[in-house]
Amino acid sequence: MVNLITFYRLVAAPLLLFLLLTGQFTVFKWLLALSFFTDAIDGRLARSFKVISLPGARIDSVADDLTILVAILGILLYRPGFLRGEWLLVGGMTLLYVMQNCMALIRYGKLTSFHTYAAKVAAVLQGVFLVLVFFLPEPVAFLFYLTAGLTIIDLAEEILLVLILPQWQANVKGLYWMLRQIKKRGSGR
What we know:
Elements: H1 2-21, H2 25-48, H3 54-78, H4 80-85, H5 87-108, H6 117-135, H7 141-164, H8 175-187
Helix pairs in contact: 1-2, 1-3, 2-3, 2-6, 3-6, 5-7, 6-7
């Protein structure tokens, strides 16, 4: 059941793209909101029903990235002025995202699925901001900067985790917890 919710986002991403390209904006924004809602609940459901798996974590990460990518494409098509005005910040986040993924591919041969606490909070803020962009007359600047700041912190943390973790790992709480774990192993506790 939980994996079906995640799988929905994988299937929804191309449908959302089709809706964008065919000008069906109203349907697009409601399905996008549904996709972000399912993103918010699938991890919680997986933990509640104890159905956490590595394939599920990987699918979730891909579905998250595709949903955000389609939302950004929606902004490019329906709110291009906003992104032009924030090109430096958006470009910086994009660079960090690409850097983190390239480093993971080089180090592990696959993308990460850390699902850190910072990533979870950033994803919720991204979802709220990206949905509101399509439902409100103007983007909420404060929410954008808050989301961008936390996204940058999350990406920097994930880059550091890629540098620290010698082997691929899913569902890492964050850098603080990883360093504590390494310290405990080093002290023999």
